[in-house]
């Protein structure tokens, strides 16, 4: 069967219009009907100028359009934007180097296949139009330059590449203070640190999100709540949030000099001391436990390389739960907290100081993975409501801490509850990005009195703040790039602003080299 030129013309123009409309909708966060409106406008223009019409001269040879590669790169950018809500070149580079196996983003993997197929079909449509209408053969050459020049993916890479000619490549390194403890308390306190996946303080705004944050607000009334904790570049994904809070530095990717024939990195940040290193030197037993695989994004390599005795994830814990009670990432949070309670009880009974770090999964974008106990407590889950999953996280965390407290397992223990980073794109995205955003950070126990500390800060300030909350003295109230929020020492963003620190980071080389010193 032969398809007529007119049919090919309108099919190609319609598909290109839909792709253009979808791209505008994703990048500009516009309503779902945007693609239809853009397509109608595109078809009207095509009809007016008779694009691909029978009376238009075809190209003399079947040349390939110059714009195919630029268009494909735009599809890559739109996929990243649609998946995560914002482009983070550092995250892309780090995950490619550290390893992306054992990730639970099945929905995004399926979406990736759909995007590839959509890009292929669009390339076919554009190729037909360019060959059918000689005018488009000329226009698309200019279009290809435009697509390359304004692709945020390439723009981000060019900003990082420009650092090789920058004359101030040590700005952050000059302000880095190697973490050090100069005086310890008489009795070493324990540490319980709970990272809540993507559960930022922004959700406490009841006007936008209702009462999904109420359990965390109630938990915060028992200790110190920190407000104004912003997000630096290179701290916006789970591994980066852990590095920022434990090492006092952003997770700047290793760079191509450390890419060993595209094999995963052998070590993660061997060039700096982190909280685990400091506590290990003082005889602490260190444990990390999470529902997801520790192979993903180099978590096992980071924790094993920085003083931890026990690192547990999906691979090590899955045999302790029913096979039918696992999500795409791993264990549900109610299961994780039950196992964590057993582990903490054994650590407590050992009489040796310990630090326990845990990571939740319930609020992982785009829709979350609420636990079965949350369904019993909150009612049915519609499968897409992130606010349901955020509320689930808060309730589970508060319930977990209450259980430990009732058992007397939190005596002489500092409890830290924080988000790992600001949420990536989810079903509440438009409300999340409508106003100023902040990370969650609160500390309870170990003699801390309830108060609210509101200061411009970032997650790199958590390390010195935790050390001082545990009773350790550190030089000038500083560690890494951070300053203790209990002190009068100004933070980097108080002194220079968030935008300025981010701008300096794009030109930084020496701190990056320090972080990865020793990696081949």
Outline the structure in words:
- The protein has 520 residues and is an alpha/beta fold.
- The chain is 46% helix and 10% strand.
- It folds into 2 domains: 5-164, no CATH class; 188-515, Alkaline Phosphatase, subunit A (3-Layer(aba) Sandwich), CATH 3.40.720.
- It has helices at 5-28, 34-49, 68-84, 89-98, 106-132, 134-149, 152-161, 171-174, 206-209, 214-220, 238-247, 275-281, 299-304, 314-317, 333-349, 372-378, 386-406, 429-432, 462-469, 492-496, 498-505, 510-515, and strands spanning 190-196, 224-230, 285-290, 310-312, 354-359, 413-419, 441-444, 451-458, 478-479, 482-483.
- An 8-stranded mixed β-sheet has the order 4-3-5-1-6-7-2-8, sandwiched between helices. The chain has a two-stranded antiparallel sheet with strand order 9-10.
- The longest helix is centred in the first third of the chain and has 27 residues, at 106-132.
- The termini are far apart.
- The model has no long low-confidence stretch (mean pLDDT 89).
- Pfam families: Sulfatase (PF00884).
- It comes from Salinicola rhizosphaerae.
- Residues 189-472 form the Sulfatase N-terminal domain.
- Keywords: Cell membrane, Membrane, Transmembrane, Transmembrane helix.
